[in-house]
């Protein structure tokens, strides 16, 4: 779900504190952002205890495009993880040098490492 900066703040504040809010900061012209979006859409199908949102980085003052794609993870209105850029948090076995060549399993691993996914739950 695409959100505006105002919606972003409201959703973080209003979401049940047991639910993870995972925000993908992106720009549609960046290939790794498009790939990340595809992977998050796939993960969202099995992670009903998380709420997935997309926020276009250029609509905020939050981040420079060099830090994209990024993931912000909130729970209970509190920022639990800032994965900027998420490609720096990928497992050592992934294609870190090719930032547009990571898999859905790589993204799942990062989310597990950050606490949003319980291993073997999806």
Structural write-up:
The protein is of the alpha/beta class and 122 residues long. The chain has a single domain, classed as 3-Layer(aba) Sandwich (Glutaredoxin). It has 3 helices and 5 strands; from the N terminus they run βαβαβββα. A 5-stranded mixed sheet has the order 1-3-2-4-5. α2 (31-44) links the parallel β2 and β3. The longest helix is centred in the N-terminal third of the chain and has 14 residues, at 31-44. The two termini are 20 Å apart. The relative contact order is 0.20. The mean pLDDT is 86. It comes from Eucampia antarctica.
Structure summary:
The protein has a single domain (2-113), classed as Glutaredoxin. The chain has three helices and five strands.
Apparent shape: globular
Radius of gyration: 13 Å
From the helix content, strand content and strand pairing, which structural class follows? alpha/beta
What is the CATH level 1 assignment? Alpha Beta
Arithmetic mean of pLDDT = 86
């Amino acid at each position: 779900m695409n959100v505006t900066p105002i919606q972003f703040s409201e959703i973080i504040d209003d979401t049940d504190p047991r639910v993870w809010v995972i925000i993908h900061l992106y720009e549609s012209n960046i290939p790794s952002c498009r790939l990340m979006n595809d992977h998050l859409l796939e993960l969202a199908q099995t992670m009903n205890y998380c709420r997935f949102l997309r926020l276009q980085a250029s609509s905020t003052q939050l981040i420079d495009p060099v830090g994209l794609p990024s993931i912000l993870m909130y729970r209970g209105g509190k920022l639990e993880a800032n994965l900027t850029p998420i490609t720096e948090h990928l497992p050592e076995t992934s294609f870190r040098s090719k930032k547009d060549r990571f898999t859905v399993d790589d993204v799942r691993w990062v989310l597990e490492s950050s606490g949003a996914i319980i291993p073997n739950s999806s």
